[in-house]
Amino acid sequence: MDTMRDRFAPVVSRLLDEDPRVAVVLAEIGKDGFAEARRRHPDRVINVGIREQLLVGAGAGLALTGMRPVVHTFASFLVERPFEQVKLDLGHQDVGAVLVSAAASFDWPAGGYTHMAPGDVALLDTLDGWTVHVPGHPDEAETLLRHAVAAGDDKVYVRLSVQSNAQARPVDGERFTTVREGRSGVVVAVGPMLDAVLDTTEGLDVTVLYATTVRPFDAAALRRATRTAGADVVLVEPYLAGTSTAAANDALSDVPHRVMGLGVGRAELRRYGTVAEHTAAHGLDARSLRERISAFLGGGPGSERA
């Protein structure tokens, strides 16, 4: 199976052909995938070199002229390094762009901590008006990329990963979907965490919600699920643990509830290792997830009353 990033260049190249507003801005990374598109549209495929602040600034400049820029590089170079430009050139100037990242939290461990970005979604949460898509399969990535480019002049972040679920599910760029129904709690699986959550909760009487668009947070879906499954909620996110805890608490602010956020820990893991080893070290492997989810939903240690 191809990866989400394998889909990125072909999908956006087709969008370049279909929509004269679309432009692509790169910073060396990913340029080979757009070689043919650049021959067809030399004025709309722009490589700024290894200059990530300029990457975002150029995208904002294109947006000011009425273009729909798609801006791409690794997540750590797209959100963290040029964060001032994301905040000011896009946010303060009130223009939109589609930021498409690669490498996720730790997709390329050999790249070291400079190429890891578990805090990207939490960082964007400090800004207003961002839509955040976290696909869990290449087919979903293609759908959400098209949604993002078609989203008027909105500010959209699409988080691509080599981690993937085995099968795609219908996604609409807005709502959580119910994958399994139960009566003893709700587990929200974000993007590529769905398969692990389904394996982990096999035999448990829980509702599983699948989230590929996490901002805006689908408070209505969570509230509906808790009416029959109870108000114990576990969030399983492929980025910084607890990123969506506040959003879940806000959704359930008028009812007694408990929320546990599982995801990537704050501690820096200094050995390169493999993706699977990083997953296990952060407690996101099937065994660890089952222990933590079962303990929480059973009222064991680690629960937090809100």
UniProtKB/TrEMBL annotation:
<protein>
    <submittedName>
        <fullName>Transketolase</fullName>
    </submittedName>
</protein>
<dbReference type="InterPro" id="IPR005475">
    <property type="entry name" value="Transketolase-like_Pyr-bd"/>
</dbReference>
<dbReference type="GO" id="GO:0000287">
    <property type="term" value="F:magnesium ion binding"/>
</dbReference>
<dbReference type="InterPro" id="IPR009014">
    <property type="entry name" value="Transketo_C/PFOR_II"/>
</dbReference>
<dbReference type="InterPro" id="IPR029061">
    <property type="entry name" value="THDP-binding"/>
</dbReference>
<dbReference type="InterPro" id="IPR051157">
    <property type="entry name" value="PDH/Transketolase"/>
</dbReference>
<feature type="domain" description="Transketolase-like pyrimidine-binding">
    <location>
        <begin position="2"/>
        <end position="167"/>
    </location>
</feature>
<dbReference type="Pfam" id="PF02779">
    <property type="entry name" value="Transket_pyr"/>
</dbReference>
